[in-house]
Amino acid sequence: MSWLAEHFTGEDPTASELLAGTGALLVGRNTFDGDDPNRGTDKEGAFGGQYQGPVIVLTHRTPAEPPADTTFCSDLRSGVDQATKAAGDKYVTILGANVAKQCLEAGLLDEVLVLIAPVLLGDGVPLFRSPGGTNVGLSPLPGGSPHWYRVVYDR
Predict the structure, then answer these.
(1) Which partner for 109 in 1, 55, 58, 103 could form a disulfide, CB atoms 3.0-4.6 Å apart?
(2) How far apart are CA 11 and CA 91, in angstroms?
């Protein structure tokens, strides 16, 4: 993700609001192992190194020695439950398009925040693709970012 750094300079009030409300991260393994543009600096890690707290990594490839404050889990439901418990009354923030898609398909996603960078991607994991699937409704959250939505499931 190092290519993305040039597009996010300065303070982002929406990202700051999300960071303040985040109690745990649920992260995909590809994102966890990703190309941190701040690797080796004091800004390494989630939210430019500002996030300090529990991290649940959803993966089938668990390392022998996980980093501190990091739990590895191979089951989506268990990962969401662990992250929810760790977050307490704060947000579980999902990092990784594949994990977000799995949570959305399982009906486990409450809100979506879309941070937009001024670049069109030619590759990568799409925000949401569900061939033959259904549309997922999004309802804007009042008073916040124009890209922060409540997920509306047809159940």
Answers:
(1) 103
(2) 20
The ranges assigned to domains in the chain are 2-152
Class of domain 2-152: alpha beta
Q: In the predicted model, is pLDDT for residue 98 greater than 60?
A: yes
Identify whether the C-beta of residue 55 lies closer than 8 Å to the C-beta of residue 25.
yes
Angle among Cα 10, 11, 14 to the nearest 5 degrees reads 140
Packing angle, helices 76-87 and 97-105, rounded to 10: 100
CA distance 86 to 81: 9
Tell me the pLDDT tens digit for each residue of 16-51.
Answer: 888 899 999 999 998 888 777 777 888 778 877 888
For 132, phi and psi rounded to 5 degrees? 75, 0
Q: Would you tell me how many other CB atoms lie within 10 Å of the CB of residue 139?
A: 10
What's the per-residue H, E or C state across 82-128? Answer: HHHHHHCCCEEEEECHHHHHHHHHCCCCCEEECCCCCCCCCCCCCCC
Stated pTM of the model: 0.86
Q: Would you state the pLDDT for residue 12?
A: 76
Phi and psi torsions of 32, nearest 5°: -60, -40
